[in-house]
């Protein structure tokens, strides 16, 4: 009996949609299965009373996001739809915000670092410059930082570099505990994306890319997959709507979910899936009747609150400063990021309890927040971001060297880089592995669309 599909893609996040997009361009019949009623995964946005609320947190850079820019160009997304943020990132220390985090100017301005720590920051930047090629590669397991954790790597420098730079960046943007997560991926990512001045955002919500991709694909939302079983050279999916067979399947979900779904995963795959743990994330969106921001010498779009200063929040994003279209004119929108240490204790808390705790902590940095807030939304992800432990780093090379099989994987965890660029790249990689086994059937090849190269002018502008 012929299979129902060429390829079943499980998960309609950026990795899954990219995988499906590439396979469809190659002429295969592809269907995407998504358990939620919408696409985008951790890059989903929704609209409420004129506000555009991002459930995750993402920015892209003119550097380090080559695959993303090429995909955007192919989809007809212009640079104007991905404008520069044009605001700084600050860190809280000694009762005030210090701008300049993730910017080379911090060597001079401080960005919350003591004079001795600034000298060590210069040393760190010189070290990354000397090792720019391995740091910028897609193989973090080959990094000169080895498999050391962030906390261990930071011991060679002044303590401030950990407490007021590496730890707050890792905690706010990735939900990491620096004693557990490896230094190599973070150092490589920061080196690749360049200074904050080059960072951009999607003008109409962080789900712009997902919406553009999904518009041309067969996506079955609210269709959870319960089990994936390899049967010879084919795959059988047990879904909420019945059984589906395919010539191949790509699991574009967090590694722990993939391990649960793929019940016949070979041992060499299962070992790495188990090692690729994820951190939970929790955030509260605050819809304000006016724009608020902390006092700062430079306009901020993010304020990091280090563990040394705060045990409730890891940071605050000022979404109306990130892009004015996120909130109606004259209004404000903030995102309060919970400290990873607090999240386990809030697992059973109500939305009201969670909101009260985080808003109460944030009034220290944003006076008037409680009075200006008109509505709150709580966002929880059990599998927020890949934790990237040394164990996962050590196992990546052998996982990548496995032969192509009926079940493949995609997601930022595959590249051990917690960013949408990794999701895009992993989707393209998974598609190439599938295509190495399959060839388009004659009936589907006739409907395939030709590959559309990225416009040269667009790539030059944003590269």
UniProtKB/TrEMBL annotation:
Protein name (database record): FAD-dependent oxidoreductase
UniProt biased composition (Low complexity): 440-456
Superkingdom, taxonomy of origin: Bacteria
Residue ranges constituting the Amine oxidase domain according to the UniProt record: 14-435
Region feature (Disordered): 440-463
Pfam family, one: Amino_oxidase
Originating organism: Streptomyces griseoaurantiacus
InterPro entries documented for this protein: Amino_oxidase, FAD/NAD-bd_sf, Zeta_carotene_desat/Oxidored
């Amino acid at each position: 009996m012929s299979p129902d599909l060429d390829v079943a893609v499980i998960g309609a996040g950026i990795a899954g949609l990219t995988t499906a997009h590439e396979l469809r361009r190659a002429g295969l019949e592809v269907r995407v299965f998504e358990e939620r009623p919408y696409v985008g995964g951790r890059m989903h946005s929704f609209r409420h009373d004129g506000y555009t609320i991002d459930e995750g947190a993402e920015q892209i850079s003119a550097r380090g996001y080559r695959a993303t820019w090429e995909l955007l160009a192919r989809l007809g997304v212009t640079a104007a739809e991905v404008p520069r943020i044009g605001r700084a990132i600050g860190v809280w220390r000694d009762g005030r915000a210090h701008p300049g985090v993730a910017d080379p100017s911090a060597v001079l301005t401080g960005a919350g670092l003591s004079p001795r720590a600034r000298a060590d920051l210069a040393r760190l930047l010189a070290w990354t410059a000397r090792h720019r090629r391995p740091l910028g590669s897609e193989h973090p397991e080959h990094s000169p930082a080895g498999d050391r954790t962030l906390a261990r790597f930071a011991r060679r420098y002044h303590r401030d570099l950990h407490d007021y730079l590496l730890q707050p960046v890792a905690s706010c943007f990735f939900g990491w505990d620096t004693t557990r997560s490896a230094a190599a991926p973070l150092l490589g990512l920061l080196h690749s994306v360049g200074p904050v001045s080059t960072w951009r955002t999607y003008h109409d919500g962080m789900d712009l890319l997902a919406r553009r991709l999904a518009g041309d694909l067969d996506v079955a939302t609210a269709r959870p997959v319960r089990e994936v079983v390899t049967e010879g050279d084919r795959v059988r999916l047990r879904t909420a709507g019945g059984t589906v067979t395919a010539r191949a399947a790509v699991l574009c979900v967090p590694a722990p979910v993939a391990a649960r779904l793929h019940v016949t995963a070979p041992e060499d795959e299962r070992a790495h899936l188990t090692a690729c743990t994820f951190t939970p994330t929790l955030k509260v969106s605050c819809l304000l009747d006016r724009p608020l921001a902390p006092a700062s010498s430079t306009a901020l779009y993010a304020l990091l609150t280090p563990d040394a200063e705060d045990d409730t929040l890891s940071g605050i994003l000022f979404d109306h400063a990130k892009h004015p279209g996120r909130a109606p004119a004259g209004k404000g929108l903030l995102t309060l990021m919970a400290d990873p240490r607090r999240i386990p204790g809030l697992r059973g808390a109500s939305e009201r309890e969670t909101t009260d705790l985080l808003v109460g902590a944030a009034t220290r940095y944003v006076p008037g927040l409680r009075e200006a807030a008109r509505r709150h939304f709580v966002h929880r992800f059990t599998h927020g971001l890949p934790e990237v432990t040394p164990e996962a780093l050590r196992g990546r090379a052998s996982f990548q060297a496995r032969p192509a099989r009926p079940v493949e994987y995609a997601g930022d965890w595959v590249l051990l880089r917690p960013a949408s660029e990794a999701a895009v790249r992993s989707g393209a990689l998974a598609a190439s592995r599938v295509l190495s086994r399959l060839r388009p059937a004659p009936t589907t090849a006739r409907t395939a669309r030709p590959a559309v190269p990225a416009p040269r002018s667009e790539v030059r502008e944003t590269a």
